[in-house]
Amino acid sequence: MAAPDVSIPDAPDTGDTPDVVDPAPPTPEVVATPTPPAAFPSTPDFAAVRAAMPPGIGDHKIFDAYVEGEEPRGIRGLMEDFIGAQSLVGMEKITRPNEKFTEKDWDKFYSELGRPETPDGYDLGDFEPRPESNWDPNLQKAMMQRLHSAGLTNAQMNKTMRDFEEVQYENNERARAYVQSMHDAAERSLRESWGAGYDAMVNGGIRAFKEAFGEDAEAVSQIVLPDGHTIADHPLFVKAFAELAGKFSEDAFTGARPGSGFAWTREQALDIIEQMNNDPHIIEVLATRNHPERKEIQHKRDAAYRTAYPE
If DSSP codes are grouped into helix, strand and coil, which group holds residue 310? Predict the structure, then answer.
């Protein structure tokens, strides 16, 4: 017996194209917006928390700062301090000095803070005093010994040395400025006093200086005075030797010291005469019979004329 035909017949061709249906769009994933953490309150009823603590704990004064004052620190402050305290666990402890400390205790304390064993143990790095500070290495050594005994650490010693050098530098700069102002004032006074004869007076002073010190004149002229100027550059010394030269020159002119090495040459005398004749102040003095400077200037002028125009 033949098996029954169970095949599915083809659908009849009607000529129509079946519609294409687009798949449904995917449903967007819903992402939950995270809720920001609530701000931790600074003082959430810490007074109540403290009151609930067992006796002997809640009434400890350590908690006062968390509940009292204009801005009590509350539980947040307590938490922060607890974290800070925990970070110190295991760290080396340093005994706080007290009135019972012996010299040995102080040495140990200073060493624990970072003081080197001896003054030579300090490292000042690139510390280099400026020449203008007039730094004294012996003073530095003595200071470091004493400051070591006072317990200074390496960092403290560095700052102390650098600050002291800065103070000394500034003080010296102010002193130099003051001395220079006095030096300039003295030189201006000489120029005003000698007028047109200033250069001749200075040259006379130089001759007197060389005559007085001979072959040592150059070395002596370079001696540095406390104000930083050399002898040859100091107005007071210039004035002293210029006046000395004038005195000896006048003595030579009058015959008191014939052949003196301080006497003016004819060329120098002619230069002095020209300068005096063109100096308004000297002209005024000579024209004023009772002027206090007239006699001295007239004497100098006459001496110059006698040298320039000998009989």
Answer: coil
pLDDT of residue 257: 40
0.85 exceeded by the pTM?
no
- Residues 76 and 91: their CA atoms lie apart, in Å, by 25
Q: 95 near 109, Cβ under 8 Å? A: yes
Q: What is the pLDDT of residues 208-225, one digit of tens each?
A: 788 788 888 888 888 888
Distances, alpha carbon 287 to alpha carbons 84, 195, 272, in Å? 93, 16, 18
Read off the pLDDT of residues 56-78 as tens digits, 9 standing for 90 and up: 887 788 778 777 767 777 777 77
Identify the CA nearest to 301 among candidates 52, 278, 311: 278
* CA distances in angstroms from 203 to 189, 199, 238, listed in the order given: 17, 6, 9
Question: What is the Cα–Cα distance from 243 to 246, expressed in whole angstroms?
Answer: 5
Distant-in-sequence contacts of 136-139, Cβ < 8 A, 24+ apart:
none
Cα separation, 227 vs 236, whole angstroms? 12
